[in-house]
Amino acid sequence: MSFAKLAASAVVLAAASATAASARDNVQITGSSTVLPYSTIVAEAFGENFDFPTPVVEGGGSGAGRAKMCEGVGTNTVDIANSSSRITQKDLDTCAANGVNEVMEVRFGYDGIVFASDVNGPEFAFTPSDIYNALAAEVAKDGAIVANPHTQWSEFNSALPAQDILVLSPGTKHGTREVYDERVIYDGCKETGAYDLFLAVAQGDDDKAKARAAKKACTTLRTDGRNVDIDGDYTETLARLDADKKAIGVFGLSFYQNNTDKLRVATMGGVVPSTESIATGEYPVSRPLFFYVKMAHLDVIPGLQEYIEFFVSDDMAGPDGPLAEYGLVADPELAATQEMVANRTPMAPLN
Amino acid sequence: MTDATSSQVPAAAPSPARSSLLTQSALMKKRNAAEARFKAYGVAAICVSLSVLAIMLWTIFSDGVSAFKQASLTFPVTLDADALDPKGNRERAEMMRVTTIGYTKLLNAQLLAHLEARGISTEGVSDKDVAAFISRDTPARLRDMVLEQPELLGQTITVEGFATGRIDGYIKGRVTRDTAALDTNISVAQLDLADRMQDEGILDTKFNWGFLTNPDASDQRPEAAGLGVALIGSAYMMALVVIMVLPLGVAASIYLEEFAPRNRWTDLIEVNISNLAAVPSIVYGILGLAIFINFAKFPQSSPLVGALVLTLMTLPTIIIATRAAIRAVPPSIRDAALGVGASKMQTVFHHVLPLAAPGILTGTILGLASALGETAPLLLIGMVAFVANYPAGPLDGGVLDPATALPVQVYSWASRSDPAFIERSAGAIIVLLAFLVTMNIIAIILRRRFERRW
Q1: Contact A258/B419, CB-based, under 8 Å?
Q2: Residues in chain B within 8 Å Cβ distance of A58
Q3: Domain containing residue A103
Q4: Which of A16, A37, B141, B227 has the fewest CB atoms within 10 Å, measured from its CB?
Q5: Residue B4 has what pLDDT?
Q6: What is the ipTM of this complex?
């Protein structure tokens, strides 16, 4: 019977694969979808210029990537986790529990977060307090905390157009949300004085707990539909913006730079976001980008050390390299990173 | 009803119209109207679904057909031996030291020189912006070619390479002068230069075989991205799924249908098979991750793991289809075979199975078609990834090399920032649809050809 032959060959295939499974000659990378394009650009150039195969790069999110890296040591686990936020102690504990003891932390640059609207719409010049006033669940008004009454931008800042408020924020599962909460909403909360009012009524055992409660109150956003959390990627935000021209979207700098024909970027505190203004620190909303390397794999997976050295080389991550061209803000301390990678220095414990 | 009305109406005033077949009574009219309304609802429902389908196909095709054409640049390049092999010994290891950056510089200089030689004015366009016409894919290809054939050094060859995504978009009409004025990646002066180059024949569009054969490319070179790895990955997975699912499914169905006793156990199995067919596909992905990758230690992103997961997913569907096909063979055939002295097994393999084969194949092909379009379970086993190397041949363990699949490619292109990837994504959908339609047509032909009715 041909079925019998087919079945036999299936068994043989499975057996052959079980023996071959132990060897892997390509680097395997997973993690943040923000870092994904940078990582693929480097992987592609690496595959072209070295005799190693092109690394395989997956997206899926910073947290998921770090969790995957911490699953254990062995060639069926990933080598590198890309991350748009710093690794947490919880991740490191999971790593240690699974035998992943030494991890190298590589910071290769910065990413800016920009507010942008439809290219044909009016110009926006924001400050963090504008975003706070527009989006917080509760805002300060005449020295008291009230439920957010604002429906138009011009209601709290006459310099802004009289347009209905609608902001497409990054969803809570994004690494972007952390810096958005921290650098925009929380700063705006302090600027408008709402933080002090929250602190005055905050419940807690000590000052630290009260500050935490006040911060939580600050970063609680309104839920009446004027703030929309986008859990997908920036293409989804762009599609929503296209459908509703009055919306303000939150994007990564590189995404904006690839779509300047559709988007008009807003200034923040009077500064136009660009790789230069982010590098000098003038533009406030930026965050570092990392990747984490499982050091136990360094001499096991061919090309892993070469890949990370190539990633942080001036040809790639430097200010004139292809990553900067794509929208990465080069790290001014890149030389120190290159030295760290060459010396294989594991990361110090988190403080 | 008629009785009731007639009793109310005095018999002295007969009304012939009441009982006529030619004129309708009020009730009849009402019933006919209800029927007409129901037909209208049905037609409306079909119209809605057809128009939604038409809109979907129209969007996909209007966005995606252009992916099959690509703008390319053709110009002569003198391979400067001093630049590409500084030591001059033609050794591969030495020549490897010149990276794609070195080749990019060479290509840029040669394109500028060629434009000057042909008298094409580059007024208003900086040298850097002229260089931006050449896809980043071209230096990599040229470098591979030179490393392969070092004897080319010093010669002048004609290089044909893709033009960058924005220039390609301009020729296809996606990028216009209005959008270019706002776009930081392209200027109107560059578009004017593109027009001049097109007139001179340096820039033109061709059918893009590369879209079907090239591997995926990074966000900086959408023009070079192709479906090569995804097609191979999908082909490997489908082949492995057929190899694994057919014997398993057919053996299980024959046993359950022909040999198994009817008792509580077989009833339980039957209920479970029906339930498994309705389990969401992502669940099989989680199962695959736990069993095949974490426990059996198969490599991540490999078509083998993908095929195993898809086999588990399609198995219940195939068992249900196969059992239906076996059940459709009339008992008289079995009785006749048994009557002339065939054993139970001979009856099954000589008579029942051949007669049920068209139904089994149709069910299998439809099951495969659904497996081909599946993304969710592949997400968890690492196949939704950027894979730029072709997997090895099937006999060299290629099923263990990383690969992607067609629907996965659609998904990952749709989430990239460069607008040129939207076109690629729609193009990949067209390829996927072509495969699905082909498989369904094969299923229909098989059914028409070999199906027997009793």
Answers
A1: yes
A2: 301, 382, 384-386
A3: 2-110+288-343
A4: A16
A5: 47
A6: 0.84
